[in-house]
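Colleagues,

For the teaching module next term, I've prepared a clean inverse folding example: a structure given as tokens, and then the sequence designed for it. I'd like students to try predicting residues themselves before seeing the answer, so please don't circulate the second half yet.
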């Protein structure tokens, strides 16, 4: 399997970045939903740190993914896909990429405004993006929540469309993002 994308398939790099991002999002969503229900404790603080680590990693992966798309453009959708679906796919991909950047940044901004440092992997203290402002922190965390829900909807639409192509249309749209050994029918 080539590292770069080809005319009809995503390469190893794009596939690895895609599936790593997906797994991190699953973990982050689950962790975020679980930790918000907990009362303040050392356990909750540890979970918040893990959530931040995942968020920073997703942000970095999104930057790498965007750079990789410039270096190795994705394969075009098959000609059998109607133009309106191609436009919708492009819009959903753009929304997902924007949210992969915006969601972590709003979390980081909220933490900065709350006066709680973000220390990546417990080793690298990231700079506060804004000064301490508890009222602004609450607004930013609400925005973070709304953007997370929007990302969840966008990813769900993306998954549903991929499954529709695979199960209903029986085309190769989903198979292009699967490792070659999984995409054979």
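(Answer key — instructors only)
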């Amino acid at each position: 399997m080539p590292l770069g994308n080809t005319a009809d398939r995503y390469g190893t790099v794009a596939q690895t970045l895609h599936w790593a991002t997906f797994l991190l999002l699953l973990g982050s969503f689950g962790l975020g939903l679980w930790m918000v229900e907990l009362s303040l404790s050392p356990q909750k603080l540890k979970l918040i740190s893990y959530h931040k680590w995942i968020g920073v990693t997703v942000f970095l992966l999104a930057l790498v993914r965007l750079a990789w798309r410039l270096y190795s453009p994705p394969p075009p959708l098959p000609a059998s896909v109607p133009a309106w679906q191609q436009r919708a796919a492009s819009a959903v991909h753009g929304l997902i990429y924007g949210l992969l950047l915006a969601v972590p940044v709003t979390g980081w901004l909220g933490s900065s405004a709350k006066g709680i440092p973000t220390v990546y992997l417990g080793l690298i203290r990231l700079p506060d993006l804004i000064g301490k402002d508890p009222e602004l922190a609450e607004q930013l965390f609400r925005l973070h929540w709304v953007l997370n829900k929007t990302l969840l909807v966008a990813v769900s639409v993306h998954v549903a469309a991929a499954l529709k192509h695979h199960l209903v249309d029986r085309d190769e749209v989903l198979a292009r993002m699967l490792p070659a050994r999984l995409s054979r029918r």
